Amino acid sequence: MIRVDKRHLAKFNHTHEIVLHNLHTTHLNYFTRVRFPFNALVLIREDFDGGESYFYCPESGQRLVLTKDFSYFIPAGLFFECRLTDGLQLITFHVGLEIYPGMELFAESPRRILAEPAPELVERALPIFDDPDDHRALCRCRALLYEFFAAHWPENFEEKSARLAPYRELFQFIGEHGSARLSVAELAERQGMTQAAFSRKFRREVGVSPQEFLHRQLLNRIFALLGKPETTIREIAERLEFSSEYYLSRFFKRFMNIPPSEYRRLFSPESAR
After folding, report:
1. Fewer beta carbons within 10 angstroms: which end of the chain, N or C?
2. 71-87: b (≥16 Cβ within 10 Å) or e
3. First-to-last CA distance in the chain?
């Protein structure tokens, strides 16, 4: 008998986590230019006449008209323009896959939007919304997303994983203690390096500057708290150690082009229609 033993995979029990920031199916009449700190997977259910909906990516020059039964994957950190019209019905996943706490798998993906026919994916997504059991719906959601990520796995992942492994404890620390007050100088001190040397090494091995990494993680924490409607913007600012609600809103708008209150209005369950 030939046996292939994969028991070593157990060492990854606390990694490769799906982090779901938002999941909704809706009609929206909406225009924005934005850079999400997480991935966006958009599935098109219907594209009735109502004006042209599209994604435009200045970095790659792509202008993609949104089409029924297509999927559009926008990797974390990619700046794009979005026009949605009333005739469009879409399913949106705002989601990350963290190979280590805080380290997004697709952060260094090719800087372009991936568009492809995906009628089976659209069909599989619908039971997530119809399932009355939230726990089972979440299992359906995770299964769909893990299969999508596995089918679109980044090239040279083993090399990337080896570069990131030494930062695992630092990523964990940022995930647990990240706030508006956490600085690059503090991270460098934890690594026993000067700030300049740490910043150069971090950018070379992680692919982004430590300041940008901190901003992304802070945005992710804001998104997580915005998903709790009982939490006010002021309470979020206090919890994340912003000096005021105003500075939280200014930080958020710098990346999202809309204030957090507007994001919450657009992507809350009440916005679906």
Report:
1. N
2. bbbbbbbbebebbbbee
3. 57
The tokens describing 68, both together, are 């029924």
Would you tell me how many other CB atoms lie within 10 Å of the CB of residue 37?
A: 24
Strand partners, 89: 46
Which pLDDT tens digit goes with each residue over 11-47?
777 778 888 878 888 777 888 888 887 899 999 998 7
The token pair at 58 is 């200045």
> pLDDT (tens digit, 9 = 90+) per residue, 80-106?
999 998 778 899 999 988 887 777 788
Among all chains, which residue has been given the structure tokens 């990350």?
96
Q: Running DSSP on this structure, what letter comes out for residue 154?
A: P
Reduced to 3 states (helix: H, G, I; strand: E, B; else coil), residue 57 is strand
- Whether the per-residue pLDDT at 257 is higher than 60: the answer is yes
Q: Tokens 């997480």 identify what position?
A: 38
- Contact (Cβ atoms closer than 8 angstroms) between residue 88 and residue 57: no
Put simply, whether the predicted model's pTM sits higher than 0.85 gets the answer no
Q: Is 151 exposed, middle or buried (0-12, 13-18, 19+ CB in 10 A)?
A: exposed
Q: What are phi and psi of 210, to 5 degrees?
A: -60, -35
The residue whose two tokens read 């790659």 is 60
